[in-house]
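Section 3.1: Structural characterization of target chains.
Under the original work plan, the team committed to producing a structural model for every single-chain target entering the pipeline before any wet-lab resources were allocated. The record below documents one such target. The sequence was received from the expression subgroup and is listed exactly as submitted; it comprises 506 residues.
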Amino acid sequence: MFVRKKPNKSGSVSVQVVDKSDGYRVVKTIGSTCGADEVQRLVEVGKSFIARQSRQYSLFPKDEHDNAVVLDFVQLLSNASIRTMGPELIFGRLFDNIGFDVIPEELFRDIVVARLVYPTSKLKTVDYLYRYRGKTISSESVYRFLDRLNDQHRSLAQQIAYHHSRKVLKHISVVFYDMTSLYFEADDEDDLRKIGFSKDGKFQNPQIMLGLLVGQNGYPIGYDIFEGNTFEGKTLLPVLKSIQKRYGFGKPVVVADAAMLSQNNLQMLNRQEYPFVVAARIRNESQAIQNAILQKCHGRINGQSMEIIRGDGCRLIVAYSDQRAKQDARNRQRGLARLRKRVGSGRMTKEHLNNRGYNKFLKLTGEVSIEIDDTKIEQAARWDGLKGFLTNTKLSPTEVIDNYGQLWHVEKAFRISKTDLRIRPMYHRRRKRIEAHVLVAFVAYAIYKELERRLHQAGIPMSPKRAAELTQTMYEMSFRLPNDPQQQHILLQMDAEQQQLYDLIC
């Protein structure tokens, strides 16, 4: 076979592949053109066709002939030949490594990975699956899946996350608990979605309450959902006892913010022998204890602490910090500046004499004059830098303070869920879908923490959020070689950051 250039009456040139082995036969017409450069390109394409027919095809160019072969191959590629593989390579692999792959629902994996990379609505998840995974699925199929997800798989998914956290932590001796509110872009309430105190500042929107229990460094242990008007202080014991019964671990030290535990709850924890560490409202203690605190803390230097045994047997530990003292003073000065401006305006009345905010520094002189009480300011300054902790444990003051200092991990977990994973606002109305939405976010958070752990262990200065961005431009090309029916798949060249992430996980 050879390539022939045949002039046409129109002035163009046809390029053909001719076979003279058995007579004279045009095997293939490559094309026709008027330009000399294009004629030469068609000639090279014709030569590559002959090479394929003789099984001499090569992707590695050695001369102009092979260049034409490569060009011919590239021209066969389409947009469908390239797809994003990073999310599956990184987050899909972590999904399997943790053990979530035992849940026999491929759509569960897809929705969780999409939540980590493209944390938008379920309808956007359908678009993601089509554009980046080549999967066609209807939004109705997603919603039907959500309707059964929580009932069928919540228990197993939470168990997998718990056992992974326990494996990482070796032993769960301390747990951290907090609650947050998740609001809905809706106006109507129901048996779950209620208007209540919103930590998101969305007091006009119905919401639910999410209680989250994590171990040290924020590794997830479990969660529960409550009605939107539930008082957060009533949720700790039910969540703690439920998770403890489910997994059979002992009674770890419970660390929580003061708002979580009322006096009644503390007494119940004591009676049921749950060790706890909570923030103490030292200004709400009895006058005798307040006097003892000020006396014992007088002249304390940065980092020092003292303790008092309360009448209920709990230890009240008070620590002093120079940094906290400066912050307390700055906050008070800013508040007083605003208060002085209001007093100077003459608009202050007797109704403003209360203990709300900085109004506690006001006093009434004469019959109608309101002014700032400098004596109260001096008394308040004596408490600058002091923070109290209440515990029924035998931990040293340093251990108590250090354990409470890790409470920010659960706050960070909420922040990650609300920003990186966009758990709120929610648009679902049905309870089953709301519960499924929270479950997906919980599993995604477990994968997020595992990626964060591996990056930290490897000393790679990369955040999980940055890793998610990198996965969006990690591509795979699919193609078939000539005379080979088997489809081939190769990852395209990655940049240095992507390669580092790929090597860490894969």
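DSSP finds 16 helices and 16 strands in the chain.
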